[in-house]
């Protein structure tokens, strides 16, 4: 387990992360969502010990990650960033061998199989010779083959075409169908990962404003539409008007009996998808806060 306690970070007095408390358990797939510049990458780099200047405590299996170098063998951070500096002159084969020395459970044979058979990339090519998309694929293969307890994917599908995105998520679902492995995915393409994640994290204005399971989200979130002035007495996270029609976005614990009562009272109930839920939680709430 990774535990985050009272995590805060500021840059020139501007809060980047503020008083974040989280427990990230084994065997889960977390979707981390937030607008550009909200602090997602900063949070992920702190979790992987790439940023060490912050307030609060990050622990892996009960030990602070800044004091436990072995934790780095079990936490892998994967980015779509293709800047490897000096290492871009290395062949892919040699880069994979380097990663095998970094991560104790790295599966070199599996990485080479993915590289050559699944994605048809020559392992003897230098990293700098690859296209942007193939550089991203190589980075993703490292994460898939690392066999870490916690693997962090920061915008994994950035730069990938539709075919390679589909291939990646197919392999991803196979690798992380494991109760001992945890993945954290930060992405703007929410509908692409909605069916893979087990938990939802939403970051807004330096804070985690939503943390719940996908099961609870599916049970509690829905849309109510009505052409009357009557407002449902529920936890409404956002609303819109379409002519005389009122649309309410709801996140609340409501029994099926109560939903049927709404239906018989002239309300229409429909499914609220995760992307629209995110927009209402972030954008609509921001508009309310500014008023």
From TrEMBL:
Keyword Transport: yes
PROSITE patterns: ABC_TRANSPORTER_2 (PS50893)
InterPro entries cross-referenced by the UniProt entry: AAA+_ATPase, ABC_transporter-like_ATP-bd, ABC_Transporter_VariousFunc, P-loop_NTPase
ABC transporter domain segment(s): 2-230
Highest taxon listed in the record's lineage: Bacteria
Gene3D superfamilies to which the protein is assigned, alphabetical: P-loop containing nucleotide triphosphate hydrolases (3.40.50.300)
Keyword Transport: yes
Coiled coil: none
Assigned keywords, A-Z: ATP-binding, Nucleotide-binding, Transport
Residues annotated as transmembrane: none
Any one GO MF annotation of this record: ATP hydrolysis activity
Protein name: ABC-2 type transport system ATP-binding protein
Organism placement in taxonomy: Bacteria, Bacillati, Bacillota, Tissierellia, Tissierellales
């Amino acid at each position: 387990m990774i535990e985050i306690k009272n995590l805060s970070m500021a840059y020139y007095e501007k809060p980047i992360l503020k008083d974040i408390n989280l427990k990230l358990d084994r065997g889960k797939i977390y979707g981390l969502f937030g607008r550009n510049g909200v602090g997602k990458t900063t949070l992920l780099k702190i979790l992987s010990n790439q940023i060490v200047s912050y307030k609060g405590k990050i622990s892996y299996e009960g030990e602070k990650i800044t004091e436990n170098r072995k934790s780095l063998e079990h936490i892998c951070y994967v980015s779509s960033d293709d800047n490897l500096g000096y290492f871009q002159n290395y062949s892919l084969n040699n880069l994979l061998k380097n990663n095998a020395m970094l991560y104790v459970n790295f599966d070199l044979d599996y990485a080479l199989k993915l590289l050559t058979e699944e994605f048809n990339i020559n392992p003897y090519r230098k990293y700098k010779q690859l296209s942007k998309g193939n550089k991203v694929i190589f980075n993703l293969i490292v994460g898939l083959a690392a066999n870490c307890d916690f693997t962090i994917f920061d915008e994994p599908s950035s730069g990938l075409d539709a075919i390679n995105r589909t291939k990646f998520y197919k392999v991803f679902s196979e690798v992380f169908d494991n109760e001992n492995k945890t993945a954290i995915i930060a992405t703007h393409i929410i509908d692409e990962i909605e069916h893979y994640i087990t938990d939802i994290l939403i970051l807004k204005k330096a804070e985690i404003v939503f943390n719940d399971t996908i099961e609870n989200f599916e049970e509690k979130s829905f849309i109510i539409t009505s052409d009357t002035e009557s407002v449902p007495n529920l936890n409404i996270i956002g609303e819109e008007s379409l002519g005389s029609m009122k649309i309410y976005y709801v996140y609340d614990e409501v029994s099926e009996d109560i939903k049927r009562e709404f239906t018989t009272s002239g309300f229409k109930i429909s499914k609220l998808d995760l992307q629209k839920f995110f927009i209402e939680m972030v954008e609509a709430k921001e508009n309310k806060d500014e008023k």
